[in-house]
Amino acid sequence: MSQNHEKSPQHCAKKGLSIDKRYKKLLYVFFTSLFSILSIVIIIFFLLHPSKPEFSLKEVDIYQLNLFTNPQLVNSSIQFTLLSNNPNQKVSIYYEKLVVYASYKKQQITNSTSLTPFYQDHEESNLLTASLVGNGVPVTSSFGYEVVCDTAGGKIVLNIKVNGQLRWKVCNWVSGKYRFNVNCVAIMPFGPSIPSGPLSSRQGTRCSTTI
Using an 8 Å Cβ cutoff, are 60 and 201 in contact? Predict the structure, then answer.
């Protein structure tokens, strides 16, 4: 007598159920391992507690700062050099979408200029140099009065501002993007007694950085 090897529907259902359980176990192991790895990376990241990058203004030269009335417009030409430093011993930094411009009395007086993205290793420093130009940049009616006051006071206070995004890198792990803003203050002599030529400021003034 031949044996019947056909499997009952109940047997197939039990087999299918065991396959589902096997996949569930594999998924559980996978996600548990992934979560453990991410947790370790995050814990290491916060234990290292990366310090924000440091910027200092090395040099600023104003080649042009002319005001035109009716309407109020400014032509400007400024060149600057910044020193960027990564103070972290075990965390490197990616800098992206960098935009820089100059402002005076809280008014932007140059067009925004993009800087090349770059990577900064542990405790590494880089020099950033750019030329800022503004042709016919509109300003408020009080701008001319502020210039007259600074002329009488014998100095001008200029702000170099950098906006961008950064990502922290720890070993092979790279964080998400964080926006940061840098504000550098340049104080230089300004007035009728100043010789002709570019106004220059050579200093190592520390800039304020917010993330």
Answer: yes
Contacts of 178 (CB under 8 A, 6+ apart): 165, 166, 167, 168, 211
Amino acid present at 161: K
In this structure, the strands spanning 173-174 and 118-120 are: unpaired
DSSP assignments along 102-133, one per residue: EEETTEE-S--EEE--EEE-TT-EEEEEEEEE
- Length of the chain counted residue by residue: 211
Residue 48 buriedness (CB in 10 A; 0-12 / 13-18 / 19+): middle
DSSP H or E run through 2: none
Question: How many whole angstroms from its chain centre is CA 179?
Answer: 5
Q: Is the peptide bond before 195 cis (omega within 30 degrees of 0)?
A: no
The pair of structure tokens assigned to 132 is 């800022």
Query: Which residue in the block uniquely carries the two structure tokens 């170099």?
Result: 160
**Residue in 83, 85, 84, 89 with CA at minimum distance from that of residue 49:** 89
Q: For 167-196, what is each residue's pLDDT tens digit?
A: 999 888 888 899 999 999 998 887 665 555
- Starting at the edge strand that comes first in sequence, how are the strands of the sheet with 125-138 ordered? 125-138, 73-85, 54-68, 199-206
Q: Does the global pTM surpass 0.85?
A: no
